[in-house]
Amino acid sequence: MRNLPAPLRRPSETLLVDRADEHAFIPLIHEVAVGRVHPDTVRLPVASAADDHAFLRTEALGVDLGEKVLRTSSGDVSYEYLVLAPGSVAVPPPRASATASRPSGASTTR
Fold first, then answer.
1. Which residues contact 56 (CB under 8 A, 6 or more apart)?
2. Which residues are 64's β-sheet partners?
3. Is pLDDT larger for residue 63 or for residue 11?
């Protein structure tokens, strides 16, 4: 929120819409997996990141640019300015097939 232009940073004039109520800080997930870090330390509640801005937990379904309306699963939200930040979804790498050929010079150690 701190990187938004000044007119969009005014308290209670910015609405953050997200379908999740918290996000994980992915770079530290491996630390949780080996027990060095408690899982709660890598979770960030979206509402706390919104500071003094409003937060609506719902899913964005579409945008009507002509009417300046964001369509959500909780109803329509009108806007003056709209900033979309769709984020990303982690996708695991494809599994290597046991029969896949190895590049020349490659070996497997067991």
1. 15, 16, 17, 18, 72, 74, 77
2. 69
3. 63
